[in-house]
Design a protein that fits this description.
The protein is α+β, with helices and mostly antiparallel strands and about 220 residues long. The chain contains seven helices and eight strands; from the N terminus they run E-E-E-E-E-E-H-H-H-H-E-E-H-H-H. The strands form three sheets. The protein has a four-stranded antiparallel beta sheet. It has a two-stranded antiparallel ribbon with strand order 3-4. A two-stranded antiparallel sheet has the order 7-8.
């Protein structure tokens, strides 16, 4: 086998057997014949494929090399589990997609050390409640927070608190800018009790609205 262009070794080949698990895919059986397809006027033949079942219930054939290399770990639908609940069908697709992106980004920056924002979130102890994690985490998150409104994104009311019901809201960019940790610390550090309460009311509303108190 020729070496890779980047000099890295190939992924080790593994013996695939029915019942093995690759991400969300469970191997059922080997295909009875190779996959033949037409590309640019020429017939192409791939290696043997395996019939796999995704956790969402869909079945598909996957090439042996994709399973060995780990490049195929689901049915190809990033939100396959949510699709079984009808959350990403018809007119619901666009608005639920935005909500899912916010939930996915929240999980990534709190649990994935490879995320560039991890030091400011998971790295300093920010956690996600158990209800919003696991296989049904997005379903519960959508039930608690509803769909993400246009022009808003996920924000914690207390920037030092966790992602949990009661401390999370959909906020505009200006609301989030006024609710950063440096503003929170500067206002609360030497403020009286009355100033703290007034500041909390200020941060809870959109700065573009009328009647916003100033300090």
């Amino acid at each position: 086998m020729p070496p890779r262009n980047d000099g890295r070794p190939y992924a080790p080949r593994r013996t695939i057997e029915p019942g093995q698990k690759f991400g969300k895919l469970t191997v059922l059986r080997r295909a009875t014949r190779p996959y033949v397809y037409l590309l640019h006027g020429r017939w192409k033949v791939t290696g043997r494929r395996w019939l796999c079942r995704c956790d969402c219930g869909r079945e598909l054939f996957v090439c042996t090399s994709y399973l060995n290399a780990g490049t195929k770990k689901s049915c190809g639908q990033g939100m396959c589990r949510a699709q079984t609940h009808g959350l990403f069908t018809g007119m619901r697709w666009r608005k639920n997609r935005r909500t899912y992106n916010s939930w996915s980004a929240m999980v990534s920056r709190c649990t994935d050390p490879r995320n560039s924002s991890y030091p400011d979130y998971g790295g300093r102890g920010i956690k996600i409640c158990e209800r919003w994690q696991g296989p049904d985490g997005f379903i519960n998150f959508l039930a608690d927070m509803e769909c993400r409104p246009p022009g808003k994104s996920l924000d914690r009311i207390n920037p030092n608190g966790n992602y949990e019901p009661g401390n999370v809201r959909w906020a505009t960019a200006k609301m989030q800018a006024n609710n950063q940790r440096r503003h929170w610390a500067a206002r609360v550090k030497e403020a009286t009790l009355e100033e703290v309460k007034a500041a909390e009311q200020y941060w809870a509303q959109d700065p573009m609205s009328e009647g916003v108190p100033t300090f």
